Amino acid sequence: MGEATVSIIENMERRTVDAFVKKAVELDHELLEINVKPVSLVHIGRDENGNGIAASGEAIEEMPKKRLAKGDSICLDFGDHHVGYVTLKLASAGSPQDAPAFLRLKFAEIANEILDDSSTYEGWISKGWIQEEFIHIDVLPCELKLPRRYAFRYLEVYAIDTSPKFQVVVEDAALTAVSAVSMEDVKPLEGLPEDLQKIDRASLKTLQDCMQYVFEDGPKRDRRLWIGDLRLQAKANYATFKNYDLVKRCMYLFAGLTRGDGKIGACLFTEPVMQVDDTFLWDYSLFFVSILYDYYQETKDLEIVKELWPTAYCQIRLALDDMKDGVLDTEKFELLAFIDWKEGLDRQAAAQGVWIYCLRHGKILAELVGDTEALETIEKLLTEALENAVSHFWDEEQGFFVSGSRRQVSWSSQAWMVLADVFDKEKSRKLMLHLLEENPEVGVATPYAYHHVIEALLHVDEKDKALELMRTYWGGMIGLGADTFWEAFDPKDTNASPYGNAQVNSFCHAWSCTPAWLLREYF
Amino acid sequence: MGEATVSIIENMERRTVDAFVKKAVELDHELLEINVKPVSLVHIGRDENGNGIAASGEAIEEMPKKRLAKGDSICLDFGDHHVGYVTLKLASAGSPQDAPAFLRLKFAEIANEILDDSSTYEGWISKGWIQEEFIHIDVLPCELKLPRRYAFRYLEVYAIDTSPKFQVVVEDAALTAVSAVSMEDVKPLEGLPEDLQKIDRASLKTLQDCMQYVFEDGPKRDRRLWIGDLRLQAKANYATFKNYDLVKRCMYLFAGLTRGDGKIGACLFTEPVMQVDDTFLWDYSLFFVSILYDYYQETKDLEIVKELWPTAYCQIRLALDDMKDGVLDTEKFELLAFIDWKEGLDRQAAAQGVWIYCLRHGKILAELVGDTEALETIEKLLTEALENAVSHFWDEEQGFFVSGSRRQVSWSSQAWMVLADVFDKEKSRKLMLHLLEENPEVGVATPYAYHHVIEALLHVDEKDKALELMRTYWGGMIGLGADTFWEAFDPKDTNASPYGNAQVNSFCHAWSCTPAWLLREYF
Predict the structure, then answer these.
(1) Is residue B141 reached through a cis peptide bond, with omega within 30 degrees of 0 on the bond before it?
(2) In a 3-state reduction of DSSP, which class is residue A54?
(3) Using one digit for the tens of pLDDT, what is the confidence trace for B57-90?
(4) B95 and chain A: CB distance < 8 Å anywhere?
(5) Are A173 and A74 in contact (CB under 8 A)?
(6) Which of B202, B48, B46 is nearest to B114 (CA)?
(7) Nearest CA to CA, how far is A51 from chain B (Å)?
(8) Which in A349, B211, B239, B249 has the greatest CB count within 10 A?
């Protein structure tokens, strides 16, 4: 996820477990590098609905023939989404260069970003995320080696000014793309219809480009390690790239860098120093339990479970601090748990689902390590949680879980209660079908939440319905030209953003990569 | 000067005299470096006339305590004008840095430039000259070593965006100032009134900051070697820093890098390769003769006169190509000669003055090297030129030289005819007094042209009048806070620019440095 909210804790006490951090550092790794060249020049325009599209332009061989005078631009297409470092070979044409060349470089994951005007950006997260550079070049020719990393497919070179006497020529462009994994390590699924093949491919590319020194949130905008995203990325990774060390490294980082009381942060930084952020999300901290559980299921590595169980169990105990009468105390703060970016979403019921979901995993882990005391506590909590799920949230008349004092019916509440197995499979199945039929207004805003709806459908064996939703939703992004999947996508409003402006949206976002896993696990 | 006009000559033939270029290269040199620290933080505001002024702000020790959030800025005052390279030590404050810091850095020679809004710039020379950088910093703390050279006194650091979670701190700032010469090499003039001391100091600083690998035009905007400026810089240098090698190097560059027919360009480049520009100005090419003459007068180096005389004489011969009926053929192209940026100026009469001025120097050089053939030609041209000066341009009734078909009376025409000694000293003196009295409308726009008016007054022994003008004009810039003298200054319009917008004006400009020479030679 991005930033669920701006959390600032002055002088927060942090705890470092050196042994875990040391292991995380040992699991650090060199990235794989591949050299990528632009494949063509494109013209970016708008389709009939106003969405940006890249129209095939000219062969890349034409690039060095273009002379960019003031106001001219070219747009390079690197053929696919990549994350990496760009070098441009620039020269001048015409009379001798009698002024600095002043260039704007725009890096875009999707065509829309080329059309965006950054001067109009007024969103609430930093404008600094817009991948746009303003560069003066005093002496041409030169090799312009850009020091920053970009996530992009398109690169627009725009001459803000040259002088009436000379023009700028882009003689060559090269990209060193980086990732912890290679696309060649994963076999494409065979026998799938073309649309699902495309969805699978974009899911894999999304995951690949988010796998760097850690599982990143979204390489365009947020290079931090977020734990909610890590949970989905790790599961997708098990089904595809199988890079277990990267998951292990991330678990050690979260366990090694916590708040003073041991609470795991929503995200953490690895630069300039490794430290946990001062943002905490109730559901995200709890997911450490599930991540450890999933890792064990995949690797059967009991050692790491033993090592990290105390950290995981600590999250369950600390979760109680934010609960009242057995449910999340959302009166304390609306965004205590994340669940989804959906505006107006009441998160209490869905949080109950997450609570049960993680308690179930915690119970199994406690059994594995033989922590009978914890097991007893968790079993008690689980029983209560299941009772509360029904007594607090189930509305028999409507046939839905309702959330909060407004008794809100949302997609996320139903999905999480189903994933939590509050009811038996058949009743859950009926609930999901009822959900699709009634289509309550409070839907989902992100692929993250959409994933949980689809996973809930698969959980109750409604494969066709799940596939239908996947095709509509992820396929909708493909229809708009996506090479990788987005942080936020609302088919009814392709310009939607959790940040008040889509310019800073990330279009290769960790939590959107799950179709590659779901297609492999369920089909 | 800047760019008199945009001259573009497609596929211009260039001639290189390797022996001269080799000598120029041998005369290349390391620059002197001094380390400069900011002296305080200032607040830039406007005075009652709307001119930018720097109000003393806070001690520089306060700088590291400032936390720059979105929209905040600080302005560092380096205490004087300098040319050099800046390194900033930046850090973050608050929560961990969760977004790139996006900073705008503005370098300003005068306070006005801090107040300028570059987005409104619509001048006809490149916007790239505005000393403003837009920089993303992914990881703080960092040492930001800016690769470009700036000419400035003030540096504004403005946080375009950080994030709600962190702020940027400028912990330290350092400048490595560069020049071919040191201010310590010149004794300040003693016994001068304070205002003239200030004028002398700013003149010296202007010259120092323009003396780099070549005599630059203006280190903010135009780092080329312009020959019209070189003439004045060389003379000011003889009276002050006495760096003869730099003049020699520049003469060899001009002589070694010409148009195919040997014509010397208005300016030349030393990077990325040494080459003459495709801009030619009739008066500027001719000034090579005077520069060589002045160098001989200062050094008595006859060897270099012998070596470069053919190049100098070539300029006289080629000048004839642009003349008709013994005067400059301005019908061919209005800006054949530069003279001044003054709008509407008819340049024909002043050009005649330049022609005679240079022929007189050429005659002496021809005698020195014993080139009797050239001597004969020059003597003939000089006689004709003097006759034409009177017959074409003198208006007995008005008591002024008039120029062009419009019979324009301008300051520059009179000044150059006086410097050319068209009349005897007494008649010239009366002409200059008549000029001051009548004050014709077509005045001067630049310190370059103003210099020639003052030099003409000194030439006819009107020292008091000369000093009065110097005090009004150069003193006017001092009154507006100048540390160095400007490319263009109109006391009636402090926002005047030859480029349609003062944002790109140079405020440390070679051709404005002459008071340091005039004060030493005449007072």
Answers:
(1) yes
(2) strand
(3) 899 999 999 999 999 999 999 999 999 999 999 9
(4) yes
(5) no
(6) B46
(7) 27
(8) A349
Residue B152 in contact with residue B108, Cβ under 8 Å? yes
The answer to whether B469 and B450 are in contact (CB under 8 A) is yes
Question: Residues B216, B498: contact at Cβ < 8 Å?
Answer: no
Q: Phi and psi for B497 in degrees, rounded to 5?
A: -150, 140
Record the tokens describing residue A284, joined without a space.
């995200």
SS3 track for A169-214? EEEEEEEEEEECCCHHHCCCCCCCCHHHHHHHHHHHHHHHHHECCC
Residue B276 backbone dihedrals phi, psi, to 5 degrees: -80, 145
Are A99 and B125 a contacting pair at CB < 8 A? yes
Contact A467, A520 (CB under 8 A): no
Structure tokens at B1: 């000067």
HEC states along A112-172? HHHHCCHHHCCCCCCHHHCCEEEEEECCCCEEEECCCCEEEEEEEEEEEECECCEEEEEEE
Question: Is there a contact between B8 and A138 if contact means CB atoms under 8 Å apart?
Answer: no
A–B interface: beta-carbon pairs under 8 A:
114
Q: Which residues on B lie below 8 Å from A278 (Cβ)?
A: 95-96, 165
Neighbours of B262 (CB within 10 A): 17
**For range B415-433, the mean pLDDT:** 98
Residue B1 reports pLDDT greater than 60: no
Dist. CA A255–CA A263, nearest whole Å: 9
From the list B100, B141, B275, which residue is nearest A126 (CB)?
Answer: B100
Place of tokens 């949302």: A410
Instruction: Reduce the DSSP state of residue A244 to 3 states and report it.
Output: helix
Strands of B365-423, DSSP E:
394-395, 400-401
Tell me which residues of chain B, numbers 261 to 280, contact chain A at a CB-CB cutoff of 8 Å. 269, 271-272, 275, 277-278
Q: B72 CB near a chain A CB, below 8 Å?
A: no
Q: Distances in Å between the alpha carbon of A438 and those of A319, A393, A443, A447, A450?
A: 33, 18, 11, 21, 17
Distances in Å between the Cα of A359 and the Cα atoms of A290, A338, A356, A388 are 9, 18, 5, 14
pLDDT value at A414 more than 90: yes
CA distance B509 to B217: 6
All residues of chain A having their beta carbon less than 8 Å from the beta carbon of residue B134 are 133-134
pTM of the shown model: 0.95
Provide the 8-state DSSP code for B188: P
Q: Which of A97, A160, A272 is facing B141, going by the closest CB pair?
A: A272
Residue B181, min C-alpha distance to chain A (Å): 24
Most A CBs within 10 Å: which of B10, B105, B165, B220, as the mutation test of the A interface?
B165
Mean of the per-residue pLDDT values of chain B:
95
pLDDT band for B5, please (50, 70, 90 cuts).
low
What pLDDT shows up at residue A5?
60
Q: A136 touching B, CB under 8 A? A: yes
pLDDT > 90 in chain B, percent: 90
**Residue A489 in this model has a pLDDT that exceeds 70:** yes
ipTM for the assembly: 0.94
**pLDDT tens digit string along A313-329?**
999 999 999 999 999 99
Is B161–A3 a contact, with Cβ atoms under 8 angstroms apart?
no
Euclidean distance between CA atoms B86 and B47, whole angstroms: 29
Helices A244-256 + A227-239 axis angle, to 10: 160
Query: Looking at beta carbons, which residues of chain A come within 8 Å of B277?
Result: 95-96, 98
Q: For residue A73, which of A140, A150, A6, A170 has the smallest C-alpha distance? A: A170
Q: Could B128 and A162 be called an inter-chain contact, meaning their C-beta atoms sit closer than 8 Å?
A: yes
Element (H, E) at B174: strand B166-179
Report the alpha-carbon distance of residue A428 to residue A437 in Å, rounded: 14
From the list A98, A126, A138, the residue facing B163 with the nearest CB is A126
